[in-house]
Amino acid sequence: MKVKILSTILFLIIAFNQNYSQGTAGESAKFEYRYLIDMPTAGILEKGMVGVTTDVLPAGVVVAKMEVGVFQNVSFGISYGAANLIGSGKPNWYELPGVNIRFRMINESLILPALVIGFDSQGKGEEFESPKRFAIKSPGFFAAASKNFALLGYLSLHGAINYSLEKNDGDNFLNLWVGAEKTLGQNFSVIAEYDFALNDNAASSFGEGKGYLNLGLRWAIGSGFTLGFDLRDLLQNKRWNPNAADRALRIEYIQSIF
């Protein structure tokens, strides 16, 4: 009986997915990525759209973000989270909510990539007291470029530069990111990003200097819904837990509000 119930549920999910998937993944994607995993991209929400994203990370960390396309090529958002929110004991709430804003300076053309500048104060993982910073630093001020190519579906290439305001560890260099997305059919995409972590490789920092390599899978499961599974820090760069890659989930929903 349990097998029959599970089979029925899976059949309904697949049927619904084939008919109504319009998330951010796959060749049928209706919306743009604003982030790959941690890396900001040149994507933006259209005017009148709202996006809600929830990241579930190790150590019971949950980070929720809401973004709104307030004007054409301008979006704004807020975020908040806590460590140990999933699990037992008292949650360790972040001290302040994060804010993010982005401006699309150049729309993608046949020759030029899309270009966005913005600011995001939301880091990821646990928030430490000494030095005062997130395990994965917030992007801070950033500029990101993205270009799409037709290649057995679509291939998207991304690059970004950022300057984080989390510099109490004495490591305040400019940082670089590169990333890519490859569609796998109508509703799936695989994504990869590399954070050079040039602002997290000093003696007092949390990284060992190898950078952060992250991989993810995205599945557009329904109208506006995208489900993601991520493997983070495949190079085992973090000093506080270098034994294995982190596993994480992402749930995203995008909908028009007018």
Characterise this structure.
- With 258 residues, the protein is mainly β.
- Helix content is 7%, strand content 49%.
- It has one helix and 15 strands.
- It has one helix at residues 2-20; strands at residues 49-57, 61-71, 74-83, 92-93, 98-106, 114-120, 124-128, 133-136, 140-150, 154-163, 175-184, 188-195, 212-222, 225-232, 246-256.
- The strands form two sheets. The protein has a twelve-stranded antiparallel β-barrel. It has a two-stranded antiparallel ribbon with strand order 7-8.
- Strand 1 and strand 2 form a beta hairpin.
- The longest helix has 19 residues, at 2-20.
- The termini are far apart.
- The relative contact order is 0.19.
- The model is unreliable at 2-21 (pLDDT under 50).
Low-confidence stretches: 2-21
Major pleated sheet: 12 strands, antiparallel, barrel
Tell me the fraction of residues in β-strands, as a range: over 45%
Instruction: Tell me, briefly, the overall form.
Output: globular
How far is the first residue's CA from the last residue's CA? 44 Å
Oligomeric state of the chains present here: single chain
Look at the structure and give the mean pLDDT: 88
Instruction: Give the structural class.
Output: mainly beta
Radius of gyration: 18 Å
- Strand/helix succession: HEEEEEEEEEEEEEEE
Q: Kindly state the percentage of residues in helix.
A: under 10%
Count of extended strands: 15
